[in-house]
Amino acid sequence: MTNTQGEIRGNRFDFLRLIFAGFVFAYHLLVLPALASPALQGMFARLAELSIQGFFIISGLLVYGSWQRSKTLALYVAKRVRRLYPAYVAVILIPAIFALLRGGALPEIIKYVLSNLAFLNFLHPTLPGMFETNPFPVVNGALWTLKIEVMFYMALPVMGWMLAKAGPYKWALMVLIYLAAEVWRYYFSHAEFIYSAQLARQLPGQMSFFITGMALRTLHAHLRDNLQITFVIAMGLLALSYLPMFGVMRAVGLGGLIFAIAYAPGPKLNAARFGDISYGLYITHFPIINGLVAIGVFANQPLQGYVWAVVLVVIASLTLWHLIEKPFLHPSSHYRQVGRHGRHKAGRQTNQDI
Questions:
Q1: Alpha carbon of 265 to those of 4, 58, 144, 163, 223: distances in Å?
Q2: Which of 26, 75, 126, 260 has the largest count of CB atoms under 10 Å?
Q3: What is the pTM of this model?
């Protein structure tokens, strides 16, 4: 594992991840209380879907770079565990403790904890006595994407090795992986058997977004020299992807747009200056909203419900960052460096190590 040529300097990836997490939060803020119109829910559903796909693209780019910079496989694994798992464990255990204190059946709580700690949320998504009368009784419906992230982390060393061995044929291999993922998602999206819709959005079907991020990482020096062209082409491909039979262009178009925004001239909008709360926002918002629904806040005062949801999610995200996420990160982590220096410093902050 060696460094790639060209360095990734100050950018807006932290800002974009915060925006993407915000769109998913906003979507669930409309859906879980069941108060918004179907048209508004549909619009935000599309934004949330695009945001999740954007997360996968950014993960492909940054985590591929992290793997390339890792001297050993063990170091790569350690960085991934430090970044993802401590906060994840917290958001699994806290609702389970609440359920236990409320007299929930211990065997069911144990099943929930064990299934969710293994990223198998679909096996046991609910807790006894929690949110049972809510329109959506699932404890944390946002966590389904994390098992996809983890599976990508597991596949990345193999993919990286294959790309290195492919040499001049690495682009053909990337295209093959991309198209195979698109075929998977298209087939299962249009199939009519049980669980086909769920299978469509699992990792094989999402790999086109991760591989797009990896390609952006590989091409970043060239793309940064041609940002305007990248932006125009990406916008065209993204718009085209919403036409029938052109959905295969979605990952490429969205990836190019994300890259162009991340490196466009102007202020870098350091969203992680006071803590990288995008991950915390993503994994805490669902149970907080559902909790407010359960105690009747939205039914009595919908506006207060929205305000309280935003306030509590921000507080929870900051708390999670400062008490759990940050302490577990390696001192050289990008996120700790940003917090220490207060802003990205070109020339010093040369690589995002996540």
A1: 23, 19, 35, 32, 14
A2: 260
A3: 0.91
